[in-house]
Amino acid sequence: MKHHFLAAALSLLATGVLAHSPLKATTPADGAVAGAVPTEVTMTFMRDIRLTRVQATHADHDPVDLDLGDQTSFATGFALPLEGMGPGTYVIEWRGLGDDGHPLTGRFGFTVE
């Protein structure tokens, strides 16, 4: 009986994880090395998400909130302007809500030479 309960619990957990909206792709790509600071950051998700906050961190600067503008609806793709902070490593951290109502977070980074 315990094994059936455990199997059912794991099945529900796996279903919940699969229902979330993982980040599919970014531009610049995670781990990319660019020759110049990009003017925007794009994010593509597997499923609809509503972004609530996106922040850029650079080693020599305080974190900066990226302007979501009118991109406040559920969507799979977002393009956000990025103010260049010079060469170095950038970390982009995002927060949002999945179309199932669950909070989602993630991060990716790139380097500008």
UniProtKB/TrEMBL annotation:
Keywords: Copper, Signal. The lineage of its organism: Bacteria, Pseudomonadati, Pseudomonadota, Alphaproteobacteria, Rhodobacterales. Residues 20-112 form the CopC domain. This is Copper resistance protein CopC. It comes from the Bacteria. GO terms for cellular component: periplasmic space. Gene3D superfamilies: 2.60.40.1220. SUPFAM superfamilies: E set domains (SSF81296). One of its GO terms (molecular function) is copper ion binding. GO terms for biological process: response to copper ion. Residues 1-19 form the signal peptide. The keyword Transcription regulation does not apply. InterPro entries: CopC_dom, Cu-Rt/internalin_Ig-like, Ig_E-set. Pfam families: CopC (PF04234).
